């Protein structure tokens, strides 16, 4: 055993040096290239596409086995009807009408939720007000407000916006307030030591720290608003003479055009997937994932 009491001139430690040739052959691979299958399964987008293809295949097989286009058209028939609706411009117009109303209701709901949450985190009465009114109205389904909206605002866009606001405000405000309350005292004291108070404290400390909960509330609010809009259009019909996706589905149901009904439902699903994949996922990657707040 070498004498370790005296430093070696070279600075090496012989007792910790190993000869690579002396290592056993079954130690394992230190580095290797991934196979094609491993690269595919490691890609989240490829896995999601696989799930969608599998669901479409099940849909097609079930439709062919049932052999009743009036009751359940096949996936191919639905895609043909969807393509015809896009080519004729009818489906594009209905989608545009629905998204326009949704954008107004969703943005207004986010603004009101932000005001309520700011009021709640800056004052005690605001916290009590938000917790009380959220406990009262959040369990109330938006569909239950449709008769009142019809009575108060009549047919058209105002009634639809009313139920959309109800769908968006409470989940966004509740999740945002929960995220703000979960911010650690260390971060709060750090912000106060820098002299942050009021709105600057909320914007620079609470919002970044509680953004995962805020983003979750925005996702829930979007999903609630989208399905509430379709349900409201089924009841209210056209908005300003145009009509949306819900009215498109309702019209084709009355005419027993089941393939077109499924095409409208497919459009609802595709828009939901696109918003989740292109909007919320990119926001998530640019914020909470980049900041290391989520895996």
Name a few traits of the molecule.
295 residues, mainly alpha, MetI-like fold, 0% strand
Helix content: over 70%
CATH architectural group of the domain at 97-286: Orthogonal Bundle
CATH topology of the domain at 97-286: MetI-like fold
Separation, N- and C-terminal Cα atoms: 48 Å
Uncertain runs are none
Oligomer: single chain
Order of helices and strands: HHHHHHHHHHHH
How many DSSP-defined strands? 0
User: By helix and strand content, what is the structural category?
Assistant: mainly alpha
Rg from alpha-carbon coordinates:
28 Å
Shape: flat
Number of helices: 12
Top CATH class of the domain at 97-286? Mainly Alpha
- CATH homologous superfamily grouping of the domain at 97-286: MetI-like
Describe this structure in words.
It is built from twelve helices and no strands. It has 295 residues and is mainly alpha-helical. The chain has a domain at 97-286: MetI-like (MetI-like fold, Orthogonal Bundle). Helix 4 packs across helix 7 (157-181), helix 6 packs across helix 7 and helix 10 (211-236) packs antiparallel against helix 12. The two termini are 48 Å apart. The mean pLDDT is 82.
Question: How is this structure best summarized?
Answer:
This protein has 295 residues and is mainly alpha-helical. Helix content is 71%, strand content 0%.
């Amino acid at each position: 055993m070498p004498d370790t009491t005296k430093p070696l001139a070279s600075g090496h430690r012989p007792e910790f040096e190993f000869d690579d040739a002396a290592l056993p052959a079954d130690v394992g691979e230190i580095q290797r290239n991934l196979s094609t299958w491993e690269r595919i399964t490691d890609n989240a987008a490829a896995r999601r596409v696989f799930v969608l293809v599998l669901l479409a295949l099940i849909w097609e097989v079930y439709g062919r086995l049932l052999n009743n286009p009036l009751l359940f058209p096949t996936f191919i028939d639905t895609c043909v009807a969807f393509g015809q609706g896009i080519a004729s411009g009818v489906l594009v117009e209905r989608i545009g009408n629905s998204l326009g109303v949704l954008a107004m209701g969703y943005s207004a709901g986010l603004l009101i939720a932000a005001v309520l949450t700011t009021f709640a985190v800056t004052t005690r009465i605001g916290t009590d007000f938000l917790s009380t009114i959220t406990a009262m109205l959040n369990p109330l389904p938006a569909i239950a407000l449709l008769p009142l909206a019809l009575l108060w605002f009549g047919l058209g866009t105002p009634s639809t916006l009313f139920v959309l606001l109800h769908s968006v405000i409470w989940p966004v405000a509740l999740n945002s307030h929960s995220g703000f309350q979960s911010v650690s005292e260390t971060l709060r004291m750090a912000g106060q030591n820098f002299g942050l108070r009021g709105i600057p404290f909320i914007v620079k400390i609470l919002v970044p720290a509680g953004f995962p909960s805020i983003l979750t509330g925005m996702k829930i609010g979007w999903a609630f608003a989208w399905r509430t809009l379709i349900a409201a259009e089924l009841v209210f019909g056209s908005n300003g003479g145009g009509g949306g996706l819900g009215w498109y589905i309702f019209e084709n149901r009355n005419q027993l055009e089941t393939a077109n009904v499924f095409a409208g439902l497919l459009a609802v699903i595709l828009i939901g997937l696109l918003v989740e994949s292109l909007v919320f996922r990119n926001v998530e990657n640019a914020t909470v994932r980049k900041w290391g707040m989520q895996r």
